[in-house]
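re: ur question from yesterday

yeah so i grabbed the chain u mentioned. its 155 aa long if i counted rite. heres the sequnce exactly as i have it in my notes:
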Amino acid sequence: MSRSSRDISVTGAEKRQLAVASATLGPWRPAAVVGALGGGVSLALHLLDGHFGLGVLTGALSVAALLFFCVGGAGAVLGYSSRGSSPDHRIRRWARSHPWQVASVPAAAMFLTDVVLRQLLTGQGFFSAIWTGLWHGAVVAAVVGVVGVVGASRK
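ran it thru and got these structure tokens back, copy pasting raw so excuse formatting
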């Protein structure tokens, strides 16, 4: 009797490993370009307004990180890669069928990046930095998850 891939039980630790493996297969080089462009535009707009400081720099870096993780994560759940052909099609299939689990990886990375940026570069309080990091991570999770759900329904 043959078993389909959906009949195989996967432990929680294995699901986390698959989510991380799926997220690493995203188009991270193009995501870096999009993030750099978005962060640069954000910084330029503040400079044109005559404002500059560590808070402005932190905001621009946060915008860059948000775009980076959204584009890279969305590409991962859709099956795009900057490396050409996929090293393992099974991981891509798993990512398409579990977009919210894959979305948790770039969301967690966004949270950590944002909290560290705000703690190192601004005088923002710890709990305020945590709150801002949480909602920025939630935005990344929502974008990547919704893109994955919509993309899976179209295939």
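noticed a couple things. Residues 27-154 form one domain. also The longest helix spans residues 126-154.
anyway ttyl
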